[in-house]
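Key result, reporting period 2: structure in, sequence out.
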């Protein structure tokens, strides 16, 4: 069954409309739409796409929506997903920034801005915990904790871009897979 363009538009429109706090805050909403609501792919594939999108330059939200739209319906799907992602942002920027600028000195506007950041942090934390659970299922607690600790050291302590860590992990996975496949073949014979 072909995915309807209307569904692609609505999935990314909702994620774009409710993703306050920047592109990253829309990712959990996008995950919900793509994986849970429409079931266009699983958690693992979504997390792989997210990891790759994080290594590329540009806004994460548009990269993800463009690729995911392309994945489900080709170039027209990509264009529909991008429009669905960008339209709410443009409209809300015009409306809210005009209103917020008029009331920027009011305490309730400053409080609202701080609350949005907190909610976006909670949403990202929930998405992160979901990925940690998937990682534990795939590679176990110990290796998950080692990779997380290495990630903190590489990105936070050493200030190295995540793309280098992801590239190193991909290289390790490719090399390990080859060794794993050879051992598997040896045991089968």
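The corresponding designed sequence is given below.
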């Amino acid at each position: 069954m072909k995915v309807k363009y209307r569904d692609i538009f609505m999935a990314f429109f909702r994620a774009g409309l409710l993703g306050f706090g920047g592109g990253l805050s829309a990712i959990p909403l996008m995950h919900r739409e793509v994986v849970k609501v429409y079931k266009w792919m699983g958690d693992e594939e979504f997390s792989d796409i997210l990891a790759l999108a994080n290594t590329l330059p540009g806004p994460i939200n548009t990269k993800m929506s463009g690729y995911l739209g392309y994945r489900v319906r080709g170039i027209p799907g990509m264009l529909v997903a991008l429009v669905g992602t960008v339209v709410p942002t443009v409209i809300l920027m015009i409306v809210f920034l005009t209103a917020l600028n008029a009331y920027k000195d009011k305490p309730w506007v400053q409080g609202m801005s701080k609350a949005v950041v907190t909610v976006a942090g909670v949403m990202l934390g929930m998405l992160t915990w979901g990925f940690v659970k998937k990682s534990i299922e795939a590679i176990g607690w110990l290796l998950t904790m080692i990779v997380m600790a290495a990630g903190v050291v590489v990105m936070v302590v050493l200030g190295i871009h995540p793309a280098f860590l992801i590239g190193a992990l991909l290289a390790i996975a490719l090399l390990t897979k080859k060794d794993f496949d050879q051992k598997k073949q040896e045991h089968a014979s």
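Residues 5-139 form one domain. Helices lie at 5-18, 23-37, 43-55, 60-102, 107-139, 141-157, 162-188. This case is discussed further under Risks and Mitigation.
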